[in-house]
What does this fold into?
Amino acid sequence: MKISLVSARPKIARPEENLEKMKSFAEKIDADLIVFGELFLSGYMCKDELKDVAQDIDGKAVRELSKVTMDKDCYIIFGMPLKEKLRGIIRNAAVLVHPDGKVDAYKKIFLPTFGPFEEKLFFDEGEELKAFETRFGKIGIMICYDLFFPEVSRAYALQGADLLVCISASPSTTREYFEKLLPARALENTVFLAYTNLVGTQENLVFWGGSQIYDPLGRLVSKMEYFKEGYIVQEIDFGEIERARTSRPVLRDLKPEIYHDLYRLSRGEHLLQRSTGKD
It folds into this structure.
C-alpha cells in the first residue's frame, strides 16, 4: 500500500479554497491513500464560524472528493466539521472517502479544552470506535488528542486494524509529546501508524507539520520537514505486521481481565486482590 501524507496550511473559514487545495494536492499525488490534517476543510481556529462552514456527510466537500477518489482509484482521509442535521450538532470528524463511492466518518472522542484549545465549546464528542475496511486492510482513525489515550489504539488493534491514521492540528509547543507517543502506539499494538499534521500559523497557534510514518516495531519509516508545506509518499507492506508480532507478541499476551479492572478503577471502585490459591 502506498500512503501519502500532506502537511499543508488551510485557511480559516474558507472551505471552498481549502477543498480546492486538497483537490490540487490529490491530483498530483500517486498513492493508494492520501491523508490531510485535522479540520482541513475549515481550518482549525474557526470557533463561532464553525456553524456556517460545517457540512454534512453528503455535502459538497465529500461529493467533490468522491469524484477524485473514483478518478484516481484511491482513498482520501481529511478532517472537517461534520454537521449532523437530525441532532443539530457539529462533530470534529475525519472522513474516509472510498474509490467506490462509500464514505465512512470517525468522530473525535477526546476533545481538548485546556490552554489554547476550546473544542468542547464547539463540538460534541464522538461515541464510536470502528476500524474501517479497505481493499488493502483495516484502518483505525484517530484525531490529535485521541493519541494520548492508548485505549483508542488498542481498540482498533483488537478489531484487526493494520494501519492507524492520526490526523492532527498540533502546535509547536506539543511536538515533543506527539513524537514520543507515535512510535509507542505503533509498537504496543504492532501496527503501522501514519500521522498527518497541519502546518503554518492560525491566530496564536503555529502548527509544526512534520507528518510521519512508523512501522509495527515503532521505527520511523518516513518523515516530512518541520514547518514545511508539502507531502511525502511511502510504500508499506502489511506483511511486516505478522513478522513484528512474532518477535513482539503483545496482542497475544494480553490479559482481558485487566480491562475489566481498569473500567472499575476508572469509576473509582476499589479492587479486591485476586486469590492466588496460596495462604
Remarks:
- The chain is about 30% helix and 25% strand.
- The longest helix spans residues 175-189.
- Residues 2-248 form a domain with the Nitrilase/N-carbamoyl-D-aminoacid amidohydrolase fold (CATH 3.60.110.10).
- Helices lie at 15-28, 50-53, 60-72, 119-122, 150-158, 175-189, 239-247, 256-266.
